[in-house]
Amino acid sequence: MDNDLNLSIAQVIKKYGLFENIPRAKAFGQHFLCDSSLLTKIVSCALPLGGGDIIEIGPGPCGLTRAILNFAEGRKIICIEKDQNLKPLHDNLLKYSGANLSFIYDDALNINLSNLDIDRFTIISNLPYNVGTKILLHLLQDLDKVKSMVLMFQKEVAERICAIPGTKNYGRLSVISQVLCNCEKCFDVSNRAFFPPPDVQSSVIKLTPKIDRPSDIKNLEKLTAICFQHRRKAIHTILKKAFPDFSQNILDCCEIEPNTRPEGISVDKFLKLSTFLFA
Ligand code: SAH
Fold it and tell me: Which residues line ligand 1 (CB under 6 A)?
């Protein structure tokens, strides 16, 4: 078996015929990055890695994995990949990298990362677009061992995650993400950087779990689902309809003006409101 580390990622893609079955590649949301300086830039956003292990979701042809290896310094790296067909390619990297690396073939949505035999970890991923938001919501369920997450999303999704109140992108995903994590946009990536290029632009963002985050956000999830269905309505009107026991006092306690629309309410105020409404 020849060492693939002597090949570029473009050559690896060709060697293993990864786009010979296009519908299959599409079903897995496969758009691969081949530019090593861009891949290094993504990993750099997670630095300093400071002690923990690393999880990569969707390694594909391992361009990002190779960049991670350059910084990993013996740390354990676990890659979770849904497409089993990539195993021969991964076996080659396992054989020649000499790294503390392993691959799990499963849907990331099926895996509770905290149950893995792993220390506190950083997650790095160029997420498949079709399930990016779903995977993020799954990761947010259990942040106890997460140091930080550096993730690539479709640009519009990244903007919704990081949006501030009063802007058109601010919504449920912003509130849920920001109540649990500090969310910052790192940089944009042109669709031309991918093979094959997707129809959308991308952004890399970094999410760092907050130390004082709430332990349970089920009620906040329910509340934001109700409120952001009616973005244009006043909060007072929405709550009066949805909660039979609602009284104006609750808004006063949360320092929310009754005529405010959901998009004008801060993350902290939403959290406070959820504790009052479901008390
Ligand atoms: N990291 C590589 C590939 C990104 S494409 C790069 O940057 O070039 C997205 C990858 O995620 C593909 O390899 C795809 O097969 C994999 N994938 C898709 N859905 C997945 C899921 N639900 N769980 C884990 N991996 C998934």
Answer: 28-33, 57-60, 63-64, 80-83, 107-109, 126, 128, 131
